[in-house]
Amino acid sequence: MKPIDFRSDTVTKPTPAMRRAMAEAEVGDDVYGEDPTVNRLEERIAERLGLEAALFVPSGTQANQIAMGVHCRPSDEVICEAGSHIIQYEGGALAALWGVQPQVLPSERGLVTPEQVAAAIRTDNIHAPRSRLLSLENTHNRGGGTVWPLERFQAVVEVARKAGLAVHLDGARLFNAQVATGTPASGWAKLTDTTSVCFSKGLGAPVGSALAGSAALIREARRLRKRLGGGMRQAGILAAAALHALEHHVERLAEDHAHARRLAAGLAEVKGVKAEPSRVETNILLVEFTRPASEMVSKLASLGVLLNATGPNTARLVCHLDVSAADIDEALSRVRKALES
C-alpha cells in the first residue's frame, strides 16, 4: 500500500532533475563567500523579494531566529500572532537565544488587525519592555495556509512603522501566497525590514531557507549565522536545489492548491469529518473529526494516510509536490473506510 503523506510539505523528495542540478553544482567555501552557486541563489532571492541582499541558511527556524537577533536586544519585545511559527515551533528560541519577550495577539486564522498592533505597542515606560519588532507570517501555517491580503498587510505594517518598530515577515510559504493571489512575493517582502523564505516546503528542495533584507542587516545576519553554527562550506550542492526549485517549482504550487481544494471538497462529504472548502486558500487544510484526532491519525496511518493532529479533534493536511490528484482520490477512499470501521 502506497503511503500518502499529508503531514507537511517538508516531506517531499528531490526530483531527478533537482538531483542532477545538485550533482553538477559549482561549489566553493561559502563561509569565505566563495561558493558561486550560493552567491547566485542569494542574488536571485534578493531580487525576487525586492530587497538588497540575502543569506542562505540551513532552516526556516534559523532564518527567523537570525532576524530576531538582528532586530532585538535582551529585554526587547516582539509582537506576533499567537499561533506564529516563532512561538509554536521554534523551541522557545526567542527566550533561549536572545532574551526577548513575545507579546502574542489572538486572531482569526492568523491575521492580526492594525488596531490590535496599535494597542500592543508599549509606551515609553521604564516598567515595560521596549516594543522593538512586529513579526508576521504569510502564508499562516496554523491559520490553515491563510494569505495576507496586501492592503491589510500594508495597514498593519504602517502602524508598526509609525511607532518605530522593525518588521519581519516569516515567508516560509510566501511563494504559495504569490501563486494564490498573483501578487509577486516582493509585494509583501519589500514592505518589511527582513523576510525569510523556505526552499524545503512547497518548493521541494531537501534543505535550506534564506533571509533577505538590507545589505547592512544581512552583513549582521551573516555574523549571527556563524554564531549559531549555520555557516556551511561547499553549500552550493544545496543551493543548486533551491535554485532549481525557484526556476521550476513555483508556478506548479497551483497544483498543490487545487489538490487541497479537491481534498477539502471530498472530505466535506464524508460523515464524521468537518471540512470547509471555502477556507482553503493555498495548500493547507484544517479538518475536525467527530472522533478524537489521535484515534483518527492512528487509524488512518494504518491505512497509509499520514497527517498530524493539531488539537483534541482537529488535524492538518498539507498538499505538496509528491501528492497527485490520484493520491487525493485514493486518500478519500481510505478516509471513508476508516470512518466506516
From TrEMBL:
Q: Which GO terms describe its molecular function?
A: L-allo-threonine aldolase activity
List keywords of the entry alphabetically. Answer: Lyase, Pyridoxal phosphate
What NCBIfam families does the entry give?
A: GntG_guanitoxin, PRK10534.1
The cofactor named in the record is: pyridoxal 5'-phosphate
Q: Which PANTHER family match?
A: L-THREONINE ALDOLASE, L-THREONINE ALDOLASE-RELATED
One GO CC term of this entry?
A: cytosol
The family assignment reads: Belongs to the threonine aldolase family.
| Protein name per UniProt | Low-specificity L-threonine aldolase
- Where would I find the Aromatic amino acid beta-eliminating lyase/threonine aldolase domain in this sequence? 5-287
Q: Which SUPFAM superfamilies match?
A: PLP-dependent transferases
Q: Which biological processes are named by the entry's GO terms?
A: glycine biosynthetic process; L-threonine catabolic process
